[in-house]
Amino acid sequence: MTTEFILLRHGETEWNALGRLQGHLNSTLSREGQRQAEALAARLATLPFQALYSSDLDRAVQTASRIAARTGHDVQRDARLRERGLGVLEGLTRAEAGQRHPAVFAAYTEGHADYVVPEGESASQRLRLALHCLEELGARHPGARVVVVTHGGLLSALLRHCLRIPAAAPRAFSVLNAGWNQFDLHEGSLRMVTWGDVSHLRALSLDDT
Q1: pTM to 2 decimals?
Q2: Which pLDDT tens digit goes with each residue over 47-59?
Q3: 3-85+122-203 has which fold?
């Protein structure tokens, strides 16, 4: 049976707006991020689904909680859905990271899947955790639709995994805050169905005009 996963990136955070690397550190949703989370909640209020899971990091939980308030689901937290741990680079802008940890930042930006950031982890380590989590959730919810709130780096890794894009290949796609991405899990194989849908955010743009 196929399990349909609606994988959502959390709303914009204060650090997203400032261009700071977040990793496992917490940054609260910005005002815009709160509005984005509400737009996701409004869209999901019209779509039946069986369960709501979230990374245990605050920005994801804050987004998931706004969805839960509209849909009535419990938010089930799972640390395997976290962003990649960026160790010594967390909390820094890219410019600051390049100045303070030039060798580490250079290795990080080269994008090799198995490079472990000091005090952090590799992209491949994080991807394996997420895949195991999704496989477990698929077995728990066969034939169902499941909503998961997670992070941009992890979503990027899942897309590369499905489309067999090498981790070190330059990123030629966007990973948008509050983006809606559908991945189907069938017989242990994950397939990307929809990527980067932000149609639910159009009303926000209209409100600002």
Answers
A1: 0.94
A2: 999 999 999 999 9
A3: Rossmann fold (3.40.50)
